[in-house]
């Protein structure tokens, strides 16, 4: 993450916390991330130096005034003015990291060959709560190359319980076996 994105994201979080708007602003940032992912041209337009800065700020104002929190609206304008709007996702990531740290939430990414059932998600979440003592925000992804099992990533930790990793470990052990 760029240093500037961290500063802006954390700055917005500090303001949101001071005003008790952490949840509302997080929801709006998440909605904007989704919208920008679906319409990447809009973000490119806001970042374009070919469009005068004042015109880009007016586009933000006409697009979001009355629809977004004033702090979020001003945040978009600030990022555009300073030339950091292309790093909006990184700013949101910094905001979410600070939010999660304050709320005791651990983001966990689970990768499996097949979609996890609700029961499996619940069991996994409960086990992770017991291990970490934190609230769990579980994001699941399907990857057919996994073959079976599950790979977890959280807090800089990788837990690989996939069939693929077990096969690789067996292959390595067999290669190192002297007969």
Give the SSE layout.
Layout: H1 3-18, H2 22-38, H3 40-47, H4 53-64, H5 70-82, H6 88-103, E1 105-112, H7 118-132, E2 135-142, E3 149-154, E4 157-162, H8 163-175
Parallel strand pairs: 1-2
Antiparallel strand pairs: 1-3, 3-4
Helix pairs in contact: 1-5, 1-6, 2-3, 2-6, 4-5
What's the N-to-C terminus distance? 49 Å
Class per helix and strand makeup: alpha+beta
- Label the CATH architecture of the largest domain: Orthogonal Bundle
Mean pLDDT, nearest integer?
A: 91
Beta-strand content = 15-25%
* Radius of gyration using CA atoms only: 21 Å
How would you describe this structure to a colleague?
This protein is of the alpha+beta class. The chain has 2 domains: 98 residues, Peroxidase, domain 1; 72 residues, 3-Layer(aba) Sandwich (Glutaredoxin), CATH 3.40.30. 61% of the residues lie in helices and 16% in strands. It has 8 helices and 4 strands. A 4-stranded mixed sheet has the order 2-1-3-4. α7 links the parallel β1 and β2. The model has no long low-confidence stretch (mean pLDDT 91).
In short, what is this structure?
With 179 residues, the protein is of the alpha+beta class. 61% of the residues lie in helices and 16% in strands. The protein folds into 2 domains: 3-100, Peroxidase, domain 1, CATH 1.10.520; 104-175, Glutaredoxin.
Features:
179 residues; alpha+beta; Peroxidase, domain 1; Glutaredoxin; 2 domains; four-stranded mixed β-sheet; 4 strands; 61% helix
């Amino acid at each position: 993450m760029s240093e500037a994105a961290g500063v802006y994201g954390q700055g917005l979080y500090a303001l949101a916390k001071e005003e008790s708007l952490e949840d509302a602003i997080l929801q709006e940032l998440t909605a904007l991330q989704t919208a920008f992912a679906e319409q990447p041209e809009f973000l490119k337009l806001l970042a374009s130096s070919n469009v005068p800065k004042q015109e880009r700020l007016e586009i933000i104002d006409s697009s979001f005034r009355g629809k977004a929190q004033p702090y979020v609206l001003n945040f978009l304008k600030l990022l555009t003015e300073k030339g950091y709007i292309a790093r909006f996702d990184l700013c949101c990531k910094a905001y979410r990291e600070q939010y999660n740290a304050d709320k005791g939430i651990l983001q966990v990414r689970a990768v499996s060959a097949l979609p996890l059932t609700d029961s499996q998600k619940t069991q996994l979440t409960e086990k992770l709560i017991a291990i970490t003592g934190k609230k769990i925000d579980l994001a699941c992804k399907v990857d057919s190359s996994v073959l079976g099992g599950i790979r977890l990533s959280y807090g800089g930790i990788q837990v690989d319980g996939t069939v693929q990793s077990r096969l690789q470990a067996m292959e390595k052990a067999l290669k190192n076996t002297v007969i």
